[in-house]
Amino acid sequence: MPAPNGSLLILSGEIGSGKTTLLQNLISDLKSVGVQIRGLLSPPVFEHDKKIGIDLVNLQTGEKRRFAGLNENESMELATARWGFDSEVMEWGNQILSHTDPCQLLIVDEFGPLEFERGIGLVQGLAAVDQRHFQCALIVVRPGMLAMALNRWPDAEVFPMARSTQVGILSSLRERILAILHGSIAAEN
Questions:
Q1: Which of 9, 16, 46, 186 has the maximum number of C-beta atoms within 10 A of its C-beta?
Q2: C-alpha dist (Å) from residue 139 to 46, 109, 129, 168, 177
Q3: Interval 142-170 mean pLDDT
Q4: First and final CA of the chain: distance in angstroms?
Q5: Is there a contact between 53 and 66 (Cβ–Cβ < 8 Å)?
Q6: Would you say 152 and 128 are in contact if contact means Cβ atoms under 8 Å apart?
Q7: CA distances (Å), 102 to each of 36, 123, 129, 185, in order?
Q8: Predicted confidence (pLDDT) at residue 76 exceeds the cutoff of 80
Q9: Where are the beta strands (DSSP E) in the chain?
């Protein structure tokens, strides 16, 4: 197999550690310095301080759709114990992820049991990461899935985080991504 083209970074933290908030801040910061970003963000939807859903945001266009709601129908194919996923929005997300290359920075928030254990979900994101048609990718994987991610992508750099380390991890990721992108630009010249 040929050497991968792009560098891969994994952001890993437990539920509620602030991964998506960190990504929102990072995306805003990187876009302000001209970084071209593609992929998907999965921000939570709250009602009265209770998480009731998950949206899916196309990072290239900003378009947002409701991706998941609380799982009240345990027979749904696209479901975890907590969330039921909208199959049409899942397909929309997969279409976005199948058209991300080439790009400077690919972000996928997040890969979980659907993708790693069941082979469904945002599988085009897995394929996009495998193909490495980016300069850098940043993917989100919870600690329980991290071993599976590293088995698939052993060269990935892992950035573990907790809410208390969010500011430091944000700075570290920004510096690392910019170093990778500047290194790629220098290598092309």
A1: 9
A2: 23, 6, 9, 18, 12
A3: 96
A4: 26
A5: yes
A6: no
A7: 10, 18, 11, 14
A8: no
A9: 7-12, 37-41, 44-47, 50-58, 64-70, 83-85, 103-111, 134-141, 157-160
Backbone angles phi, psi at 154, to 5 degrees: -65, -15
Are 159 and 9 in contact, with CB atoms under 8 Å apart? yes
pLDDT of residue 75: 61
Contact (CB, 8 A) for 21 and 173: no
Q: What are the structure tokens assigned to 49, written together?
A: 């301080």
Token pair of 30 as six digits? 């990187």
Distance between CA atoms of residues 115 and 119, nearest Å: 5
Helix (H, G, I), strand (E, B) or coil at 95: helix
Length in residues, the chain: 189
